[in-house]
Amino acid sequence: MVSFKINGETVQARQGWTVLETARQHGVHIPTLCHHEAVEPSGACRLCVVEVVQGKWSKIVISCMYPVAEGIEILTDSPRVKNVRRWILEMLLAECPGSKEIRALAAEYGVSASRFAAHHPDEQCILCGLCVRVCKEVVGVSAISTIGRGVHKKIGSPYQGPAEACVACGSCVTVCPTGAMRARLDAVRGEPKVKLAHGAK
Ligand code: SF4
Ligand code: FES
Fold it and tell me: Which ligand is in closest contact with the Cα of 43?
């Protein structure tokens, strides 16, 4: 077992656990968007930042991928953490101004507007990739993936038409933290009767 502190309280964790896993085990809240216990962490959204204090220095890390270590001290709500989290929320607001989930989360941290320019006022997706990872790692079909590059990057099915591999399970919609996948599922799964006809062959 590894022993360290979270917000001044001594906690125990198993070797190999992350700071986020340990915090959740001990009832300490750290906000996340791209994390889900069912899939491997990817560190995409950065919202789960915490401050690691070790002796005279400290640094900001993402708790969903940072491994626990003996004697470290973690601060989940320090002024530095709150400041970084607000910056991240401003960037997320600019990335997906159309998501009421992200607007509500930002409001919780006192962020109601962004200093960054929003290019697509209706966009809801933060490109966290959680839907893609669940489809691949849990459902095992990889019906969706990241398409395009740079500012044209988005989540969709091959050739942006109904994906033959899609089993219409809706797992992607369930895990999506912003509501973006709700509007995309119909396009990905196609007409239910087409799917049934295909499966009956
Ligand atoms: S659709 Fe949702 S889960 Fe998928 S990348 Fe976008 S925000 Fe993340
Ligand atoms: S939850 Fe850790 S980076 Fe998204």
Answer: 2
